[in-house]
Every structure is written in C-alpha cells, then in structure tokens.
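Study this:
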Amino acid sequence: MKALTLPEAAHVIRDAEVALETLIPVEDDGIHELTGRTADESRKLRLDASEVIGQAVYDAILPLCQAYVLTGEARFAEAAVKWALAASEWDPKGVTH
C-alpha cells in the first residue's frame, strides 16, 4: 500500500505505538482538586481538567484507528476499542459532562 510509504503514515504509526504503551485514564483522573478565588474560577478549573482527560482519550484513539486503517494490524483496532469502552463507562453527569 503506497500510503504506508508516506512520512505522515510513519508519524501516525509512531503515535499509535505510543498510545499502545499509554495507560488508559480513569474518570477520576479528571477531578481537579484546586479551588479558585471565585465560583467562576473554580468552575473554569474543573472544565479545564475535564478537557484534558477528554483530549487524552481522543489523542490516543485517533492514531490507533488511523494506524489500523493504514496497516490492518488488529492490535491497533483492539486498543482503540479498549480505550473507547473504558471512556464509555464514565458517568455522563460526572467529571467529563
């Protein structure tokens, strides 16, 4: 497949390899302990923490899926599904609502 010879493909596969070695976050990883000086500041801190954990999941799943499409290697698809299933167990009214 010609796509595998492109530099972009190597980058995607490298990112997917990193994702394979990354621990899947748990919902509590998005809980922010700091309190702001105001209620609005505290809310902003919670939102920022929530965004970080959501972005971490996205940043892992995307290259895993792309690497699977490029290579057909099941290990990438299996890892993407594992990440997605873990995130799907999070409380929809919890940290990442």
The first helix runs from residue 7 to 21. The helical segments are 7-21, 39-71, 74-88.
